[in-house]
C-alpha cells in the first residue's frame, strides 16, 4: 500500500512535468521549422497569434484565427499548411524577365480568398467577400477583385493595368530591362518608360519599423509599390534604385519620425557627392515618430495612427507640391585639450537647443536605452517627457544660462536676459506641435520659414515657461534672426540637442551655418478634406 501511494504520488507530480517538457520541446521544434521556412522562402512571411479580421487558409480553406501571412502578396495560411503554401503559391515579383522589355504586358497575379472588405467585383460590380468561406480573387498588383463565378479564362489571363496607382508603381519588367541594359553598359534609362506613360512618377517607400509606436511593420504590406524596411537595409543602398529611374521624377515616402527623415536626407546628400544630383528624389513624410515637427511643418500631420487609408496617403504623395528645406551644419569645437580633438559635426533640419528641453530629451534617451520595450507608444513617450519636464521645474538644473553662454548672431553679440535655455529654429514647429517663434500670436512677428536661409533664435526661462508657450499662455524671448549663429559655452557641462539627439557638452564653441537645401514635398491638406467631405 505504501509503495502504491508513492508510485501514484510520483506519477501525479512527474506526469504534468513530462507533458509540459514534451509540449515545450514540440513548440521549440515547430518554431525552428517555421523560422527555417521563413528564411528560405521568397514570401515575406510573418506569424500572428490572432488575425485582425475573419481569415481562411489559402490551402485547406478552413477558418483560422492564427497562422502566417505574407505582407507582400497577402497570402494567409494555417501553421500546418505553411510549407505547402510556400511551394504552391508565387509571391509578387519585383523583377520579372520578359521578351518584350519594359513595354511588355503583364497578366494579373490572382490570389484567392481574404479579399478586402467592401471591395467590388470588376466584372459584375457587386460586393466581394460576403460569404463566410474562402472565396473570390484579388490581384496583388492592381487590387481588383473578381467573384468565383465571374472568373473566366479570359479574365485570368487579362493584362494587368496596375489599377489606380499605375503612375507610381515600378513594373517588374522595367527593372529587369534596366538590369539588362546595365550589363550591356547602356545608361539611357530615361528612354525606357513602361507602357509609354507620360506622367509616370515612381514612388519608393522607406519604412522604419522601429519608429514611435511601431506602426511601420503594419504598414509594410499595405502599400502597393516598392517598400524598403530601414531596419534591414540602409537608406543609401535603397536610394540607389533612383539611379535606375527617370531623372527628376522619383518620389520617396519616408515612414518614420524626424530622425528617420534626417537619416534619409543624409543619404541623399551622399548622392550629391557622388555626382548623382539629377537622380535626387523629392521626399514626403508619413509621421510615425513622437515629435514629428518637420512633418507638421510640411503639412503631413503631427502623427499617423491609421486614421487615413493607405490609398489616400498615396494620392496625397502624387498630388503634393515640391518645395525646398534649408539644412544647416552644426559644428561643436571643444575648448582645451590643445585643440587636438576633432570638432563634432551635425546636420540640422529642425532645431538646435541648449537648456531644459535638451535636458528632457537627454533623460528620455538614457531611460529608453535601458528599457526600450517601455517606450514603444507615442502616448507613453510624451508622458515621459512631461514627467522629466515637471522634475526640471523643481530642480532647475539649467539656471543662470546667460552667465555661462555668449551668443552671436551674424557676428553681433547679443545681451542675454536671465534665461535657462536657448533654441535655434529652422522650421515653424517645435516641441511636438508648438509654433514657438509666433508664440501666442498677439504680436506682429513674421512667420518662421524653412526655406529663407534664416534661423530664428529664442530664449526660454525654464521648463514651466516651455509648457506655457506650448498651450499659448506665454511668448518666447525672441532674440533675433540670423544667417549664422555662434554660441560659446564658457564653463560647466550643459545638455544640448540637435533634432532630438541629445548629449552632455562641456566648454565649447557651437557654430551653425547653412549647408544645403533638400527637395521636399508639401501637402496642403485641401484635397484630403474635399475627398472626405464628398
Automatic annotation (TrEMBL):
Pfam families: DAGK_acc, DAGK_cat. Signal peptide: none annotated. Membrane-bound diacylglycerol kinase that converts diacylglycerol/DAG into phosphatidic acid/phosphatidate/PA and regulates the respective levels of these two bioactive lipids. Thereby, acts as a central switch between the signaling pathways activated by these second messengers with different cellular targets and opposite effects in numerous biological processes. Also plays an important role in the biosynthesis of complex lipids. Residues 198-334 form the DAGKc domain. It catalyses: 1,2-di-(5Z,8Z,11Z,14Z)-eicosatetraenoyl-sn-glycerol + ATP = 1,2-di-(5Z,8Z,11Z,14Z)-eicosatetraenoyl-sn-glycero-3-phosphate + ADP + H(+); 1-hexadecanoyl-2-(5Z,8Z,11Z,14Z-eicosatetraenoyl)-sn-glycerol + ATP = 1-hexadecanoyl-2-(5Z,8Z,11Z,14Z-eicosatetraenoyl)-sn-glycero-3-phosphate + ADP + H(+); 1,2-di-(9Z,12Z-octadecadienoyl)-sn-glycerol + ATP = 1,2-di-(9Z,12Z-octadecadienoyl)-sn-glycero-3-phosphate + ADP + H(+); 1,2-di-(9Z-octadecenoyl)-sn-glycerol + ATP = 1,2-di-(9Z-octadecenoyl)-sn-glycero-3-phosphate + ADP + H(+). One of its GO terms (molecular function) is ATP binding. Pathway: Lipid metabolism; glycerolipid metabolism; Glycerolipid metabolism. GO terms for biological process: glycerophospholipid biosynthetic process; phospholipase C-activating G protein-coupled receptor signaling pathway. Residues 42-91, 107-160 form the Phorbol-ester/DAG-type domain. The keyword 4Fe-4S does not apply. It is found in: Cytoplasm; Membrane. PANTHER family: DIACYLGLYCEROL KINASE, DIACYLGLYCEROL KINASE EPSILON. Keywords: ATP-binding, Cytoplasm, Kinase, Lipid metabolism, Membrane, Metal-binding, Nucleotide-binding, Repeat, Transferase, Transmembrane, Transmembrane helix, Zinc, Zinc-finger. InterPro entries: ATP-NAD_kinase_N, C1-like_sf, DGK, Diacylglycerol_kin_accessory, Diacylglycerol_kinase_cat_dom, NAD/diacylglycerol_kinase_sf, PKC_DAG/PE. This is Diacylglycerol kinase. CDD domains: C1_DGKepsilon_typeIII_rpt1, C1_DGKepsilon_typeIII_rpt2. It comes from Buceros rhinoceros silvestris. The chain crosses the membrane at residues 6-25. PROSITE patterns: DAGK, ZF_DAG_PE_1, ZF_DAG_PE_2. Belongs to the eukaryotic diacylglycerol kinase family. GO terms for cellular component: cytoplasm; membrane.
Amino acid at each position: 500500500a505504501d509503495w502504491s501511494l508513492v508510485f501514484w504520488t510520483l506519477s501525479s507530480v512527474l506526469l504534468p512535468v513530462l507533458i509540459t517538457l514534451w509540449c515545450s520541446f514540440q513548440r521549440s521544434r515547430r518554431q525552428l521549422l517555421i523560422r527555417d521556412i521563413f528564411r528560405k522562402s521568397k514570401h515575406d512571411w510573418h506569424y500572428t497569434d490572432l488575425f485582425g479580421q475573419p481569415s481562411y487558409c489559402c490551402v485547406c480553406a478552413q477558418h483560422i484565427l492564427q497562422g502566417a501571412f505574407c505582407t507582400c502578396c497577402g497570402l494567409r495560411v494555417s501553421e500546418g499548411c505553411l510549407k505547402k503554401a510556400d511551394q504552391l503559391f508565387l509571391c509578387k515579383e519585383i523583377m520579372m524577365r520578359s521578351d518584350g522589355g519594359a513595354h511588355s504586358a503583364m497578366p494579373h497575379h490572382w490570389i484567392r480568398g481574404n479579399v478586402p472588405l467592401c471591395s467590388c467585383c470588376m466584372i459584375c460590380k457587386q460586393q466581394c467577400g460576403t460569404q463566410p468561406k474562402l472565396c473570390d480573387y484579388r490581384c496583388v498588383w492592381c487590387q481588383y477583385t473578381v467573384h468565383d463565378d465571374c472568373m473566366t479564362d479570359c479574365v485570368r489571363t487579362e493584362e494587368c493595368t496596375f489599377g489606380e496607382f499605375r503612375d507610381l508603381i515600378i513594373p517588374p519588367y522595367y527593372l529587369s530591362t534596366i538590369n539588362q541594359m546595365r550589363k550591356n553598359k547602356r545608361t539611357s534609362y530615361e528612354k525606357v518608360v513602361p507602357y509609354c506613360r507620360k506622367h509616370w512618377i515612381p514612388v519608393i517607400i522607406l519604412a522604419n519599423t522601429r519608429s514611435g509606436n511601431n506602426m511601420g511593420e503594419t504598414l509594410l504590406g499595405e502599400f502597393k509599390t516598392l517598400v524598403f524596411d530601414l531596419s534591414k537595409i540602409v537608406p543609401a543602398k535603397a536610394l540607389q534604385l533612383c539611379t535606375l529611374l527617370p531623372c527628376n521624377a522619383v518620389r520617396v515616402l519616408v515612414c518614420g519620425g524626424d530622425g528617420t527623415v534626417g537619416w534619409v536626407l543624409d543619404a541623399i546628400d551622399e548622392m550629391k557627392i557622388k555626382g548623382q544630383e539629377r537622380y535626387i528624389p523629392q521626399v514626403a513624410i508619413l509621421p510615425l515618430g513622437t515629435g514629428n515637427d518637420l512633418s507638421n511643418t510640411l503639412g503631413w500631420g503631427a502623427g499617423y495612427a491609421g486614421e487615413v487609408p493607405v490609398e489616400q496617403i498615396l494620392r496625397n504623395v502624387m498630388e503634393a507640391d515640391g518645395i525646398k528645406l534649408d539644412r544647416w551644419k552644426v559644428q561643436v569645437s571643444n575648448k582645451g585639450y590643445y585643440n587636438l580633438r576633432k570638432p563634432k559635426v551635425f546636420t540640422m533640419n529642425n532645431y538646435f537647443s541648449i537648456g531644459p528641453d535638451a535636458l528632457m530629451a537627454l533623460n528620455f534617451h538614457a531611460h529608453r536605452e535601458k528599457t526600450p520595450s517601455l517606450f514603444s507608444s507615442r502616448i507613453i513617450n510624451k508622458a515621459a517627457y512631461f514627467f522629466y519636464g515637471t522634475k526640471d521645474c523643481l530642480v532647475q538644473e539649467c539656471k543662470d544660462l546667460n552667465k555661462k553662454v555668449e551668443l552671436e548672431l551674424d557676428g553681433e553679440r547679443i545681451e542675454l536676459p536671465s534665461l535657462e535655455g536657448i533654441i535655434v529654429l529652422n522650421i515653424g514647429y517645435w516641441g511636438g506641435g508648438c509654433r514657438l517663434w509666433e508664440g501666442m500670436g498677439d504680436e506682429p512677428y513674421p512667420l518662421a520659414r524653412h526655406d529663407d536661409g534664416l534661423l530664428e533664435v529664442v530664449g526660454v526661462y525654464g521648463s514651466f515657461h516651455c509648457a506655457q508657450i506650448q498651450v499659448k499662455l506665454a511668448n518666447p524671448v525672441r532674440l533675433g534672426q540670423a544667417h549664422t549663429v555662434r554660441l560659446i559655452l564658457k564653463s560647466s557641462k550643459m545638455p544640448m540637442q540637435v533634432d532630438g539627439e541629445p548629449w552632455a557638452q562641456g566648454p565649447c564653441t557651437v557654430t551653425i551655418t547653412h549647408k544645403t537645401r533638400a527637395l521636399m514635398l508639401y501637402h496642403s491638406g485641401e484635397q484630403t478634406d474635399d475627398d472626405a467631405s464628398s
